[in-house]
Amino acid sequence: MKKLISYLSVGILLFSSCQKTQNDTSKVKEEKLPNVVIFLADDAGYADFGFQGSKNIPTPNLDNLASGGVVFTDAHTTCSVCSPSRAGLLTGRYQHRFGHENNFLHGKYGMDTTEVTMADVLKTKGYNTAIFGKWHLGTQDYFHPNSRGFDEFYGFLGGHRGYFFNPDKYDGADKTSTQINHNGKHEAFEGYLTDVLADRAIDFIQDSKKSEKPFLALLSFNAVHTPLQAKEEDLEKFKDHPRQKVAAMTYSLDEAIGNVMETLRKEGLEENTLVFFFSDNGGTGNGDNSPLKSNKGYEFEGGHRVPYLMYWKGQVKGGVTYDGLTSTLDVMPTILKAAGIDKTPKQLDGVDLLPFVNGAQEGMPHDELYWRIGDWKAARYKNYKLVKAEQVGHVVYNLDEDISEQKVLNDALPKVENKLLTNLTNWENDVIAPAWPGTAGWTEVKRYAYGDLFENRKPTITSPGQLKKLKVQK
């Protein structure tokens, strides 16, 4: 019954706009609605791309997008882990508003079916919508991308899988979360998955052009998430690299993005396509996160500050570096505004970025941003940041002067400290509790780690296994 009510709720929210879909579709040619391509990397290191300063991993295609578009230097995801970050991206709302605060491993969990995705809304304007790659927002039919506004889905429903077809591990008939799923059906594939996803997206783009309809293509790559696997020819290119597999995987990711962009050019679609690139959260220990502190799963900058660029030839000035506080919450409202959509069924937490990067609007997209995974929290107010760990403590930093979060300013700035704590409390009162628990075994590990990180020490305990060994030794 709850599932039925959820479907009815979304239907009611979208009913009035959906009535107009047929008329809107007939006007597509006249309106020249922009296409949208989102390139989403997984667990990418902050400094592992040329446009982010990498000297030993060439990424010429992303560098070209960066030089022709806008690079956001103070850009953040809504969470430092995968699934909640994706929920915030697709809804344009803090995922904490609907309880999607933690990652999950079990099929009964997923993104609240009363939430409206960017694909849901774009379809009311006649868009073809597709997602290729990682979903990680639920494996049940009512959580499936085809039930969340996407006409086309080719990818996997879980949080990670290998890059090559493997019927004994990821691609068995019973591997619902890792097998390749094409619109609800299990499919085999040949080749390297990063390439396969790009090829499928290219087919979709070409088909959309033939249909003369605008499109949304979300390429949700699993690169460079573990397991670390790359093509032999790419491994050979980086045989002397200290992080050979990550370098090869990143190179292949860039190559796949280049193939999609080349298709847009050949099809005459580049100037009418708004493009985004970013990672879903901070890099892991496999990535180069310099100069940021910590990595994925933590509320320091290394957990949620990500490479982030926007490209729209002829509409967005190229070669721009934008320093204003920005979020992946802003992707959906930017896209919808570009598509001429001013109203949404639910209020969004993001803003349209185009007026800020084009100089039409002063100030920053955000003065405040917030993060929370259970007891681990953070708040921004302009250049100041609070990181708080329940039962451990909290610290205040000035990121303009200390992006690496090394100098604690609690004593020096008591008024700023109080404001950040008050802002965080007020925000927490405005959202809801997590709809499901976090991954078992990590709470005590995180307390040890935050205690070390607050003192600028390398964490001594980083996994439940290490904690168990420590307790045995004692």
From TrEMBL:
Residues 34-341 form the Sulfatase N-terminal domain. One of its GO terms (molecular function) is metal ion binding. It holds the Pfam family Sulfatase. Gene3D superfamilies: Alkaline Phosphatase, subunit A (3.40.720.10). Keywords: Calcium, Hydrolase, Metal-binding, Transferase. InterPro entries: Alkaline_phosphatase_core_sf, Sulfatase, Sulfatase_CS, Sulfatase_N. Belongs to the sulfatase family. This is Sulfatase-like hydrolase/transferase. It comes from Flammeovirga aprica JL-4.
